[in-house]
Amino acid sequence: MAAELRNKGFGREAKLSDLSFLKSCRSTPHPGAFLDSRFLQPLSISQAHLARALGISRRRVNELVVGKRSITPSTAIKLARFFNTDPEFWLTLQMHWDLYQELEKEKRQSLPAQ
């Protein structure tokens, strides 16, 4: 799988600096949506296949993909090993999502009631 990923442009080149696009986005993608759109779909990997490969439940993968679950350090390590990336890459996606959500919450709370 690692060789196939490298041939498709994935691998160690996915570093923290690759996340600079998040600063310019109107909204930050949930890490699960990012996983689905940038890894699973382009590589034709099913959620069931990923779950088996990572040794986790299909439900856990699905909840991550649909935005109901966060990427934990344990999941980040498993994803990094499978996709030949860095755990920090996945945790940084999660951190950006968490920060974005908190900033949006603050914006909503600071709006005057109408």
**Contiguous runs where pLDDT drops below 50 for at least 5 residues:** none
Number of strands: 0
Largest sheet: none
Question: How widely separated are the two ends?
Answer: 55 Å
Percent helix? 55-70%
Radius of gyration: 15 Å
What is the H/E string?
HHHHHHH
Residue-averaged pLDDT, rounded?
87
Q: What is the number of helices?
A: 7
Which class best fits the helix and strand makeup? mainly alpha
Please explain how this structure is put together.
- Helix 3 (about 30-45) crosses helix 5 (about 60-65), helix 4 (about 45-55) crosses helix 5 and helix 6 (about 75-85) crosses helix 7.
- The model has no long low-confidence stretch (mean pLDDT about 85).
- Helices cover about 65% and strands about 0% of the residues.
- The chain contains 7 helices and no strands.
What can be said about this structure in brief?
65% of the residues lie in helices and 0% in strands.
Question: Which tags fit this structure?
Answer:
mainly alpha, 114 residues, 7 helices
